[in-house]
Amino acid sequence: MITLLKNIKELIQVRDLSIKKVKGKDMKILPTIKNAFLVIEDEKIIDFGEMTNAPESADKIIDCNGKMVLPTWCDSHTHIVYAGNREQEFVDRINGLSYEEIANKGGGILNSAKKLQETSEAELYHQSAKRLEEIMALGTGAVEIKSGYGLTVDAELKMLRVIKKLKENFSLPIKATFLGAHAFPKEYTENKEGYLTLIINDMLPLIAKENLAEFVDVFCETGYFSVEDTDKILTAANKYGLIPKTHVNQFTAIGGIEVSVKHHALSVDHLEVMNPEDIKVLQGTETMPVALPSCSYFLSIPYTPAREIINAGLPLALATDFNPGSTPSGNMNFVVATACIKMKMTPEEAINAATVNGAYAMNLSDEVGSITKGKKANFIITKEIPSYGFIPYSFGSNLIDSVYINGQLI
After folding, report:
1. Which one of 16, 78, 167, 211 is least enclosed by Cβ atoms within 10 Å?
2. Which run of H or of E encompasses 267?
3. Side by side, which strands form the sheet with 317-318?
């Protein structure tokens, strides 16, 4: 079926297929067409341009007068497969407890792991599917989902099987990441080497056998997994063809970026604490830095230094970090706004970071992230707005009129 979108006030993020990511000064450039049309055939974009060149007929015509069209958000870092919630820890933080203190008293990741281990696979799927439907309605058209709240062989596999089922039942691209190295289970507190052995000798072979993940992740951070631990896990995962995407520099800079780059990580995520050496290590690599501003907002920790990263000629992607402990929100619209408000990114930079660069951070550059002939027809139609800068400016408003995934209204 041919669908024509006509009278689009501005068609945003129009790219050639050869553009995989944008970096440095180019992040300030957001190609658009004003008074535009867009043609989709079934699930693909087949044509676009100025209204003067629009076709006269189609099977279905959508009048976008006063509205803008942009590609759906590409959220490259989430943990949306989890059980229950952790609102009590939210209250604990208000009352003065730190992230570390909450973890030490049985909260944090271990709290989520306990709940998940006790939750059936069917119930876990049900909770996760509701969250996935929510973020799709908020304009997300591609998402990465991590394990990491299992921390046992059975529970990690349960999480990854739920992600696999979500992939089968939902039309948007979903990427699965194995994050067994998210925290050390309580029973391995005094035997960290034992847990590394469990990940390497038990979890990885089973995940590879069942083809449950494309990426591997490690929380490389003080009090969690060391640079040496990270090196061991990524080396082992490489034998199974898993591509690294790491949590680094959230609270401390301990060399996580360097070991990630050594293993050709697709992305390094968080980066709230950066030093000049870390930025230097990323220059000249194919690794995508990923900022998670709503995590900084929720935890009241520093924001990723976007200006320093972009001014160094590097690319930057934006993602939500949707999880029960540090970012209980998958709203990419809020992420884009927060990046502008708190990280001093321009609207152009933020939209580039949340679309084309987010797609790159999931190995989805050929499918989503821009308005490009041959890519999936995954796009947002806004309400009537004066400019695309109004999206981050009006941070508390829902400016989405409709969302299309694979050419279908969701």
Report:
1. 16
2. strand 267-270
3. 73-75, 140-146, 174-181, 215-220, 243-248, 267-270, 288-291, 317-318
